[in-house]
Give the backbone structure.
Amino acid sequence: MIRELSPELAHIAKTELNEDPKQTPEDIKHLREWIIKQTHLKARTDDQWLVAMLRGCKFSLERVKEKLDLYYTLRTTSPEVTLRLKPTQPTFINFLRLGTCIILPKAKTGLHPRVILIRAGRYDPEKNSVADIMCILYYMVQILVMEDDSATVIGTKIVVDYEGTTLNHLVQANVTLLRKIVAVSQDSLPLRLKGSHHLNVPSGIETIFKLVSAFISEKAKQRLKIHKSTDELFEHIPKDVMPPEYGGTGATVAENIEYWIAKIKEYKSWMEVEERLGTDESRRLGALPSDVAGDKGSFRQLNID
């Protein structure tokens, strides 16, 4: 069953995403039949999951097929990102507890993109990697799109706080790893990125910004904002979403962390299935997705809505 959208979200979905509730069941049926025919693909066929993928691709069936193939291919070909921390294992919860990545609650009023807060300097670079942040976000996003229609229809914004970031953190972001993180986060996840906002930016990060900005669209560059204060941030992010540690009136960082730890535990059976999904490349009949097979030293330009 597909969860019915509120009238406000249904209007946005129709005008911005080309969603037609009468056609959606047929689209899902088509995708499910297509997945079954892909001999190499071990993928979910849940209605709500597939409709999230459809929304992420503005209901273009061909784009959804490409995204689904890429999503599960990266599970197999880039386990150093997608399976780096397995969501059913204590190491996943332990890293989540550091608060490097939390998805903040919905705004109390109005319709707004969901906010993902990345706290890039909150882990020990001797023990963990920036790829661990991407890994836990990868699985948190699955829960988000299964539960929150506003995230799949309106999209998300990312807030990155660099407080505590050192040179040892920055050197982890090499070209090869960045390429895989971008492929996983921007190209394969069923989300529309509506902007990225950066706080407490240290010297030295400019190199990484320049590297990434060379591979993203003009729209994405325009939506990348560096803020000198949280007051500037609140011009783009509702204050009641951000934790009080950032001058907001929302739940504390600790409360957000505990919420997501509980969610991951609640979804244990889902995650057990996730760890078995992916691709069997020995059974693939066609070519690998371009993000995996092509552009060996470069990024494909990203589509950001």
Q: What stands out?
A: The first strand starts at residue 41 and ends at 42.
